[in-house]
Specification:
The complex is a heterodimer of chains A (290) and B (435).
Chain A: H1 4-31, H2 38-54, H3 59-85, H4 90-111, E1 127-130, E2 133-136, H5 137-159, H6 161-171, H7 173-178, H8 183-208, H9 213-217, H10 220-229, H11 235-254, H12 265-279, H13 285-289
Antiparallel strand pairs in A: 1-2
Helix pairs in contact in A: 1-5, 1-6, 1-8, 1-10, 1-11, 2-3, 2-4, 2-8, 3-8, 5-6, 6-8, 10-11, 10-12
Chain B: H1 2-21, E1 58-64, H2 74-87, E2 97-103, H3 108-120, E3 124-128, H4 136-146, E4 150-152, H5 158-161, E5 166-168, H6 172-186, E6 193-198, H7 204-218, E7 222-228, H8 236-245, E8 249-253, H9 256-268, E9 276-279, H10 288-292, E10 300-303, H11 313-325, H12 334-350, H13 360-368, E11 395-402, E12 405-414, H14 421-429
Classes of the chains: A mainly alpha (290), B alpha/beta (435).
Chain lengths: 290, 435
């Protein structure tokens, strides 16, 4: 069997998991909020793109609108809930975002019925053969964008003043506030950025997989697994984790005998990483923020 | 804070301006395009008196899955529209129908609660237009205890067709899949055949079982009978299995969104080839052709009732009633036809009775006694009858996508299912096909 198509498909989906993971990680490091609603925000952005394209909006404008909507929803939640979340522990922060995820899912299911929908990006129509696997331009965009966002985020964190503030918050929130960092501004920037990344990921996933509210909402699971592989600190390891999960899932599904277990790959990988990491006493969620 | 709010507001206004200026005009049509236009007679429902019914209401209920990811509400929605029309036309000999719909939200526990609630409320005389995706088995237990019967609009899992107190108007996924397979068999395109379904208990496995049994009986080589995980994100393995098996034809027995994703993956791999691709009635909706795009011109689907644009007394009345009594954006699909038809069967069963004597017992007797019910929405007469299984609709039509919309490909054809021998036998021995 030619496994190349599976590797390609896995790399593509994996790169979008990684892209999403970067959004989750930046928000988590800056605000301490592990955002379970990341997938739902992406789903909402994708459905808005579909809806506006149906209303005959030009696709490029629709996509920009979708991404802006993702950023706006996340920012709004950050503005409203941020001050309260700052005072509670991490578990409660995470559970609050689970609430947001369920609200967004409910809204999506209410607004859009269960009929078939597809997003077809123009770039998906251009495809070519690579060693027996068909690759389209959207898939190249996925791979390129993941790499670009990882490198861009690293550079931004290192060389911009906002990046420095984010790192200050990640390292010690109280101390950063004492030395004059505008905590709210930095946190809101993190929310908006993370929301925009969620929007981009949601639209790409809708093109590459399925445009369904519940499906896109629960894609947060492989994304979180990628972040776990990054051990909640490393952008590069999150990228590697996303790609590994994507390729793992795709390869497992290539063999009929084990293909039924492909959706379990993120859980298995995350569990193994957590077990190994705990054994070495390198990281726990509490230690990272302490 | 203010700066952010101002920036957000500016962004919002900017986006709105861009959105409005980027819109291109759209040609707007009626709810069902290409259908014959309605005339006044279509709206004389039931007695057709044109006078509002003012007597004591008759309570009728329905359990449907309207939220939770699956939306079957168009079945009770059209039943409601038909009942409204009947109530405006003299009701059931002067008594209006009061219709209540419960949403089980894709949760069988909730279905059981709703069913128990309606069973306990003795003023509820029957269930009409039900469409639960999850709870036929649990609901039937409650109905059986209470002597309550359901003329179900849409049944999907096996349990909906194997219940004593539930009888669906639609044909169900198994019959729909077999209909598609047998269509290709008639075209000499079914050997070898490939089937794709969903790995769900009491549903996907039931359909796969039917395909396997029929293939064995008809001597068709089954190149694949694959069930995929409902949460699957990557359909590439499936497409690769299909291309390697290289069947003459193929049927997808999945909900429309998943079918569309499978087709998108196949298109991306340019895997259509010489294979005849098709889908069960789940893909027969007005939006589907346009969503899957030009690549799938000639894609085939089964239709469990008449096509939505068909010309016929009941088909025309369904569209007229929907236009008059339902929301303009309410779906005009097979489920909607099914809900309408179940309501019509119910009303026609009650009209000959004395309106004063209507209670659960007399209504149940009338519903059980329905037989040989003819409608141009159906292919063969519909019936209820006392039995442990109800599967009256086993003759369907085929449709094909032309210019992005479905048109009729083949008229009514009876569908053979090796497991339906008992039902066919009872149709004859009990004379269920004639009034």
């Amino acid at each position: 069997m030619n496994l190349l198509p599976f590797v390609v498909a896995g790399l593509v989906i994996g790169s979008v998991y990684a892209l999403s993971g970067v959004g989750v990680l930046v928000l988590y490091r800056t605000t301490g909020v592990l955002n379970f609603a990341h997938g739902a925000v992406g789903g909402l952005a994708a459905l808005l793109v579909w809806q506006t394209v149906e209303l005959r909006l030009q696709p490029a404008v629709a996509i920009a609108l979708g991404i802006a909507a993702g950023a706006a929803v996340a920012l709004l939640f950050g503005l409203v809930a941020g001050p309260y979340l700052a005072r509670v522990d991490q578990l409660r922060k995470a559970i609050a975002t689970l609430g947001l995820a369920l609200v967004l899912l409910g809204v999506m299911l209410f607004v859009w019925n269960d009929k078939a929908r597809t997003i077809r990006l123009e770039t998906s129509r251009i495809s070519f053969d690579v060693g027996g696997a068909r690759v389209n331009v959207t898939q190249l965009v996925c791979l390129g964008l993941a790499l670009l966002v990882v490198v861009g985020t690293l550079l931004a964190l290192r060389y911009t003043s906002m990046g420095t503030s984010m790192r200050a918050l990640a390292s010690d929130r109280e101390l950063a506030a004492v030395v004059g960092t505008n905590v709210r501004l930095v946190e809101n920037t993190a929310w908006a950025t993370s929301g925009a990344i969620a929007g981009v990921s949601g639209i790409l996933l809708a093109d590459q997989t399925r445009l369904e509210p519940a499906f896109l909402t629960f894609l947060i699971i492989p994304v979180l697994a990628a972040v776990v592989i990054g051990r909640f600190v490393s952008l590069w390891l999150t990228l590697v984790g996303g790609l590994a999960i994507g390729v793992g899932q795709s390869l497992v599904s290539a063999w009929p005998t084990v293909s039924a277990f492909s959706t379990a790959v993120p859980f298995v990988v995350a569990t193994v990483v957590i077990l190994v990491a705990t054994r070495r006493r390198v990281v726990t969620v509490g230690v990272v923020r302490a | 804070m203010n700066r952010i709010l101002r920036a957000t507001a500016a962004l919002g206004v900017g986006a709105l301006v861009v959105a409005l200026s980027a819109c291109v005009p759209e040609d707007d049509g009626g709810p069902v395009q290409g259908a014959p236009s309605a005339d006044a007679a279509d709206l004389s429902c039931g007695l057709g008196t044109g006078e509002e019914a003012t007597g004591e209401p008759i309570k009728v209920a329905a359990v449907a899955t309207a939220s939770g990811g699956v939306d079957f509400s168009s079945s009770p929605g059209s039943a409601q529209a038909y009942f409204d029309c009947v109530n405006d036309n003299g009701g059931i000999n002067g008594r209006p129908i009061e219709y209540e719909v419960g949403d089980d939200a894709l949760d069988p526990t909730r279905t059981a609660q709703l069913a128990a609630g309606y069973a306990a409320d003795t003023s509820v005389v029957a269930l009409v237009g039900d469409a639960t995706f999850v709870g036929c088995d649990v609901a039937n237990v409650e109905y059986q205890k209470a002597g309550l019967y359901s003329i179900t609009g849409v049944g999907v899992p096996q349990a909906c067709f194997e219940s004593s107190n539930i009888a669906p108007v639609n044909a169900g996924p198994r019959t729909s899949a077999l209909a598609t397979m047998q269509y290709f068999e008639r075209q000499d395109q079914a050997d070898p055949f490939f089937a794709i379904g969903l790995n769900t208990r009491g549903n996907g496995d039931w359909v796969a079982d039917g395909i396997e049994k029929y293939a064995a009986e008809a001597g068709i080589e089954l190149a694949g009978n694959v069930l995929s995980d409902p949460a699957e994100s990557n359909f590439l393995p499936l497409i690769s299995q299909v291309t390697q098996a290289d069947p003459a034809s193929l049927v997808i027995v999945d909900p429309a969104p998943i079918a569309a994703s499978i087709l998108a993956t196949a298109e991306q791999q340019d895997a259509r080839g010489d294979i005849q691709w098709s889908c069960t009635a789940s893909c027969y909706d007005a939006q589907f052709g346009e969503q899957i795009g030009d690549y799938w011109e000639g894609f085939v689907a089964n239709s469990e009732l008449a096509l939505v644009a068909a010309d016929g007394d009941d088909a025309n009345q369904w569209r007229a009633v929907m236009d008059e009594y339902a929301d303009a954006d309410a779906p005009r699909d097979t489920f909607s036809q099914a809900g309408f038809l179940s309501a019509k069967i119910f009303v026609d069963a009650l009209l000959p009775l004395d309106a004063e004597t209507l209670d659960r017992e007399t209504v149940s007797q009338a519903v059980l006694g329905v037989k040989g019910y003819e409608s141009d929405l159906l292919c063969a007469p519909w019936y209820y009858g006392e039995a442990d299984e109800h599967h009256a609709n086993h003759a369907t039509r085929m449709a094909v996508i032309e210019d992005g919309a479905y048109v009729e490909l083949e008229g009514c054809q009876d569908v053979a299912d090796p497991d339906m021998a008992d039902i066919l036998e009872r149709e004859q021995s009990e004379g269920l096909l004639t009034e």
